Amino acid sequence: MSPQRRTALVSVVAACALLALKLVAGIASGSLGLVSEALHSGTDLVAALLTFFAVGVAGRPADEQHQYGHGKAEHLAALFEAGVLALVSVGVAGLAVARLGGWIHIHVDAAWWAFLVIGLVLAIDISRTLTSLRTARRFRSAALLSNALHFGSDCAGSLAVLIGLIGVRAGVPEADSIAALFVAALVLLAAVRLMRRNVDVLMDRAPADAEAAARQAIAGIDPPIRLRRLRMRSAAGRHFADVVIAVSPSAAVGQGHAAADAVEDALERALPETDVVVHVEPTVEDAVTRELAYAAAMKVRSVREIHNVAVLHVDGRTEVSLHLKLPADLSLEEAHRIASEVERTIQESVAGIDKVQTHLEPLAEEAEGSRAVGIDVSDDVEAVEQVVEERTGERPREVRFLQTPDGLVLFLTLGVGGSSTLDEAHRRASEIEEEIRATLAGVSEIIVHTEP
Q1: pLDDT band at residue 60 using 50, 70 and 90 as cut-offs
Q2: Which of 248, 282, 316 is the C-terminal boundary of a domain?
């Protein structure tokens, strides 16, 4: 027999003894306090029997029908116990109120043997409370912990009954009914706590402390691991964690498996005996995410310009921020509608984005431009042609300077072999642009166009 079941069996025996002892003493003395404690012990007997069988069921290994084990049997037993406690406490409170209101008249005999019974009851209650509490902490058993709390409330109830009998002995007959009301309130409070705690487990409410410890453990892994999602629940003192992590798409299968093992080890150290399932997903590179977000946003009508698209990773969530330029004369209400549509379109079009943040800016008026009249740019044209010819072996197809309010702008058209890739053409254009900037300090902007 397991230590948990042995502890539960001891509780069954103790509950039987206390039920008989309190009931006989209560009827003989006429003490409603003792009778209410006897009823309380009756619920103890039911609870102890349920715990005895529930612990046995919870200890069974997982099977085909119960793939997560049988741990929730303990919480079902504890929830039923709480319901019985609540009903009994209401019944006892009703009797106490009836006696205090004079509708029921029962003489209470506070004899010496009633005090002896209460002393014996207190000794048993304290002993079984400590035994159940030690075993519950050792094996993290919800059912045994509920028993320990239940027995602890018995101690307080027994003390209240003792005080009530002392009051009756001192000539205050209402003291026994007041003690019974106190016991009823105590039992009802314990029942509500038990219900709330066990309903949370049965409804798979995430254990906040365990989740925080799990997130901290994953955050401490070196090299860092990107956490996409963490879901946790608990049953019978054991935690279950579903983790989704992201690794680079270029990572080998072995690297992804190693990352999953690192997560499992970290959670095992932080929360021993946790059942961990890790799912590995490829990350979408930030550059790709930016491009996809930009393309999705440009599909929205009225959007004129987008810039400063940034991808951020915060607490396992992927966020995109961008600056959105709209016509300056647009109303704020209409601008907000367009921004909301942009945010929604990006989230619907690009997988893995949890949030989109837009910054609205007015679109500047189109600047007037003119040819560089009155400015001698012949030397500049010659310098540009020389740079292009050295780099490509051919003269540029067009070199045009334009004077704008922001300065001198160069428009340059290059011929690139038709077999070249877009990446190669862009790289060559960038190299030529950098060299021209180093040669012509007076040019504010260079726009290079490549064509086959």
Answers
A1: low
A2: 282
| Residue whose C-alpha is closest to residue 89's, from 177, 185, 23, 5 | 185
Domain boundary among 202, 222, 248: 202
**What pTM value is reported for the model?**
0.44
CATH number at residue 273: 3.30.70.1350
Measure the N-to-C terminal CA separation of the chain; round to a whole number of Å: 85
The number of folded domains in the chain is 4
Long-range contacts of 221-226 (CB under 8 A, 24+ apart): 221/262, 221/263, 221/266, 225/259, 225/262, 225/263, 226/283, 226/313, 226/316
Measure Cα distances from 371 to 365, 404, 436 in Å. Answer: 19, 9, 19
What tens digit of pLDDT does each residue of 410-428 get? Answer: 888 888 776 766 667 777 8
What is residue 172's predicted lDDT score, i.e. its pLDDT? 78
Give strand pairing partners of 355: 319
User: Counting beta carbons within 10 angstroms of the beta carbon of residue 165, is it exposed (0 to 12), middle (13 to 18) or buried (19 or more)?
Assistant: buried
Do 278 and 290 share a domain, yes or no? Answer: no
